[in-house]
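Figure 3 (text version): structure tokens given as input.
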């Protein structure tokens, strides 16, 4: 199942961004933080690819970049500077094991049935 999202980093509220540019360590597609206060461009748009019909807790998902078609992943390499030990986050041209992500924290929202008159229910994790 595909859903479109813009993701923001927790620390500086910049958008998860990518474009056709090689990453510094592995030469894969660069992924960075971009924009201020939610402002950005189409390089900030990602599709959420669920392993099921719905995004449920503990299920694997993939993030696919809309402009380039790459999948968010970890290159397995880490930086020495500016932040020693920070892992390189990149875009891979095809889905592979390193592009699977699992929900660990967040907000779970139960969707309302189309025929139901009940309000949305949610559980905070």
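Below: residues designed for each position.
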């Amino acid at each position: 199942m595909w859903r479109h999202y813009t993701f923001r980093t927790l620390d500086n509220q910049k958008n998860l961004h990518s474009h056709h540019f090689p990453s510094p360590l592995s030469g894969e597609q660069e992924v960075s933080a971009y924009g201020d206060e939610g402002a950005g461009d189409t390089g900030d748009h990602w599709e959420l690819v669920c392993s099921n019909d719905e995004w449920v807790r503990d299920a694997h998902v993939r993030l696919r970049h809309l402009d380039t078609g790459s999948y968010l992943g970890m290159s397995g390499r880490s930086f020495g500077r500016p932040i020693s030990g920070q892992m390189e986050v990149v875009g891979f041209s095809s889905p592979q094991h390193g592009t699977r992500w699992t929900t660990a924290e967040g907000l779970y929202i139960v969707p309302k049935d189309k025929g139901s008159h009940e309000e949305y229910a949610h559980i905070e994790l």
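The longest strand covers residues 15-22.
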